[in-house]
Specification:
Elements lengths: L1 H30 L1 E11 L4 E11 L6 E9 L4 E11 L2 E8 L4 E10 L2 E8 L2 E10 L2 E9 L3 E10 L23
Length: 181
């Protein structure tokens, strides 16, 4: 009896993972390309500033990997977050770096329908990041601890249609090669 219930459990889990893989792939593909839009950064102490943001996502022709570049600037601050994610079903893991503050660490998370939810750790701080995707609109919400600001919220729209091949003024490209270093 134990073998049958174990086999059924493994079959159910395997089926859930096989359904999650297409969901992850579809979301990653729909995110690929350039995005831009306004946002706000909320600093410790209650001060907030407007942000101008650009994002780039690429799957680099692999269904289980997503690269993220998010660059935002306010009058007094810049943020350049990069992440490399690997999916196993709906679970995500990988690495991140923030180039302005020279910090890096690990990422874990999950994909659900239209959303990527991440936990970011390392470099003396922790954060939660939620990316919600709706056709050509995206919202990015980041809450942090230990870095002098506690929240970033961004509303992005797809830049230049579905895909925008070639280079732009921000050193990013969408030809399968990812962002420029």
């Amino acid at each position: 009896m134990l073998r049958i219930s174990t086999a059924l459990l493994l079959l159910a889990l395997g089926g859930a993972q096989s359904r999650a893989a297409p969901l992850t792939h579809e979301l990653f593909v729909s995110m690929s390309g350039y995005w831009s839009g306004p946002g706000r950064i909320h600093y410790d102490g209650g001060v907030a500033e407007a942000l101008s943001c650009k994002a780039y996502y690429t799957t680099k022709n692999q269904i289980d990997r997503l690269s993220i570049v998010l660059r935002c600037a306010s009058p007094s601050n810049k943020i350049e977050l990069r992440a490399q994610l690997v999916a196993q079903g709906e679970n995500l893991s990988g690495s991140w770096e923030e180039r302005t503050f020279n910090a890096s660490g690990t990422v874990t998370g999950r994909v659900s329908e239209g959303q990527v939810s991440l936990s970011i750790d390392g470099g003396g701080f922790s954060a939660a990041m939620l990316v919600t995707q709706e056709t050509s609109n995206q919202s990015v919400s980041i809450t942090t601890q230990g870095v002098g600001f506690n929240e970033v919220s961004v509303s992005l729209t797809r830049k230049g249609g579905e895909r925008n091949y070639g280079r732009d003024n921000y050193g990013m490209r969408d030809d399968g090669g990812g962002p420029e270093n």
